[in-house]
Every structure is written in C-alpha cells, then in structure tokens.
Design brief:
By secondary structure, this protein is an alpha+beta fold. The chain has 15 helices and seven strands. It has two domains: 176 residues; 138 residues, 2-Layer Sandwich (Heat Shock Protein 90). This is Sensor histidine kinase.
C-alpha cells in the first residue's frame, strides 16, 4: 500500500468516525430543533455522501478538482442547513452545527490532494459558512459566533495547514526513498556489469598486453595499447557514481574526473574519500591536468611516465600535482614560449587555475623532469 492510498484511507476512516459522532448529536438534540425532520434528512445526506466519497477517493483517477468541489459543496450545504433546522435559541447559545466535526473531512481531503494552500482554502470556505449560518437565521454574528464556533474555525485552519504540510513532507520523503532504491538498483547492476567485464574483457586485454610484450615488434605496440585500455576501463568501472546532472554548478567528484587519465604511463593517486567541487571548477581542473599530460606526451617522448597526485587539505583547498620523469627544461623556456605565442601552459593551465582563484607553481630543471602544482580553493569562486 502506497502513501497516497494510506492517506485517503485515513480520510475515509475519519469521515465515518466523525459521521458517527454527528449522528449521535443529531439523535440527542432532534427534539430541540426547529425542524426535527430536517436534522434526520441532513444525517441521511451525510451518510450517503460518506459512502460515495469512500469509493470515489479510492480511485486515483477521480481525485481531481470536480470531486473535491463536489465534496466541498455537499459539506457546505450540510453546514448551512443548520440555519434552517436549528432553533434560534440553539444558535445563540453555541449549540454545535448539524455536521459538527464531519466538515473537517473535506478540509483533510483538500489538504491531502493539494497541500497546505488547498487545506487552508477549504478551511476558509467552511469558516465563511459558519458565519453565514447566523446571517441566514437572522442571528447577529457577534451573538452567534461563540467561543465554541470560533475554536472550531481555528481547528479547521490548523488541520488544513498542518495536514497539508505533513503530506508534503511525506511525499518528499517517499520520493527520496524511491530515488535511493533506484540508485541502489543501479549500483547493483553496475557491480554486476563490472564483474562480467572483469571476467571477460579485462582478462583478454591483460593477455594481449602480456603476449604482445613477449612477441615484441608491432605486437609490443598493440600490447601497450591494450594495457592502456585495460587501465582506462578499470578506472571507468571503478570510478563510482557520476556527478549528478543539474547544470554547470552541480557538484562533482574530482577523483572520478582525474581517474579517466590513468594509463600504463600515467599513475593517478587520490584520497579514499570524495573530493567534491562545483562542477565547473572540477572540469576546469581536469582540463588543466589534461593539458599538462599532453605536454608530457609531446615533449617527453612515448616512454615517459607521469604521476598525478590529488590532495584535499580539509581546510577548503585542493592541490593537484602533475610530475613527469622527462628531460626537464630550463627556467626561461616558458617565458620564451609565451613570447613566441605558444600559450599552452600560460592559458590551458595557468589561465584556468587563475580564473578559479588558485595558483600554479612549476618546478623544472634539465635532466630532472617537471612538476606542476595547482592549488585551488574548494568553494565556489566569485
């Protein structure tokens, strides 16, 4: 049984319990009414409408504005009939209306269907009906609107507001639970696929890499490529859940983005816990790392190795280092490249990190490789 079904069943149960209470009051006070037969007629209408709404609200396709409007019309009619059935003495001395607390069932139905606003609107309609009773009977509103009637009106407003709010919270909780169940199912399916890939594709790639290295020549190159694809595929199936969609500022785990660049020649090291950044910042850092690795491939040769280290200091800063074992470069080389119009490092790395409010430090010397350290704030940048 879902949440909606449980809520509407609760409204139906309350309607019948409140009808029983109203029936007892009508039976006990019928001899005091101005028109006793009118009281019995109203009780019959309430019984018939309680049965109709019990079956009507049970069908989700009927829980729409026409049924809600009809529910409010019948409830208001039973309420206003008090002005004709009840005596002037009863109205001036605070006797309960004919439907008594039965009218709150319509408020609950509106609150369940439309939330807080609909519940408060239904309470306002019935509050106006309580005041109209005295006008129809010719009783001054000040005399007829006693403390009991006023308390009943306030209870209607509180019921509409509180029940509508609780229903909204319950629906939100149900939606989050459904989303969690979907994510759990997706995670299990991902793990199942990862096991199948591990048992088939990854083992084949590993065998190709091993046999290619043994055969040498062109086979060795094929083996190297197979090894790189094996590392990339392992990173893909082990990266975890991707960042949620929702625009450029949706948070993203920087670990998963950097893990895509791992290969047989590139080692990516990251913390065990997520390093979450705004989506734009995470993608810019990944692009800077990709530019640094591209420089390694172009300037250090195919046999060069690179290491990417991701660190989160826990105080709002993230550090990403890219180090290689290439030939290195003299200190003035970057300045000469920028002056000549080659802006790979200046724009692709320094420019991106600078726009994020971070800094870039490049340490290199001939024969000692190069290390690029990028430090960026973890929070959003103005």
């Amino acid at each position: 049984m879902g949440l909606e079904t449980a809520l509407w069943r609760a409204v139906a149960v309350y309607r019948w319990v409140a009808f029983g209470y109203a029936a007892v009051l009508i039976a006990a006070n019928a001899h005091k009414y101005e028109h006793p037969l009118g009281g019995w007629a109203v009780m019959a209408v309430m019984a018939a409408w309680s049965g109709c709404t019990t079956f009507a609200y049970a069908d989700p396709s009927r829980r729409r504005r026409p049924l809600l409007a009809a529910d409010m019309a019948v409830t208001t009619g039973c309420l206003l009939s008090t002005a004709w059935v009840e005596s002037v003495w009863g109205l001036t001395h605070g006797m309960p209306t004919l439907p008594a607390s039965w009218v709150a069932a319509a408020v609950l139905a509106w609150a369940v269907a439309g939330g807080r606003r609909a519940g408060v609107a239904a309470a306002a309609i019935l509050a106006a009906g309580n005041i109209t009773i005295n006008v129809l009977a010719g009783v001054p509103p000040v005399r007829g609107l006693g403390s009991g009637t006023f308390n009943g009106i306030m209870l209607l407003f509180m019921a509409g507001l509180v029940v509508g709010h609780v229903v909204k919270l319950a629906r939100d909780a149900e939606a989050r639970l459904a989303r969690a169940v979907e994510l759990e199912a997706a995670t299990r399916e991902r793990e199942r696929l990862a096991r199948r890939i591990h048992d088939s594709v990854l083992q084949v790639l590993a065998m190709v890499q091993r046999r290619g290295g043994e055969l040498g020549g062109e086979a060795a190159e094929l083996g190297r490529l197979a090894g790189e694809q094996e590392v990339a595929l392992r990173a893909l199936i082990g990266a975890g859940t991707p960042a949620p969609a929702g625009g450029a500022e949706a948070p993203a785990d920087l670990r998963a983005l950097l893990a895509r660049h791992g290969s047989t020649s590139v080692t990516v090291s990251a913390p065990a816990t997520p390093v979450t950044l705004p989506g734009h910042a995470a993608r810019e850092i990944e692009a800077a790392v990709a530019a640094a690795l591209d420089n390694v491939r172009r300037h250090c040769g195919p046999d060069a190795r690179a290491w990417v280290l991701l660190e989160d200091d826990g105080a709002g800063g993230v550090t990403v280092s890219v180090r290689d074992d290439g030939p290195g470069m003299p200190p003035e080389r970057l300045a000469r490249a920028e002056a000549a119009g080659r802006l790979g490092v200046a724009q692709s790395i320094r420019g991106r990190v600078r726009d994020l409010g971070g800094t870039v430090t490049i340490v290199s010397a001939p024969g000692e490789g190069t290390e690029i350290e990028m430090v960026v704030p973890a929070g959003p940048v103005a």
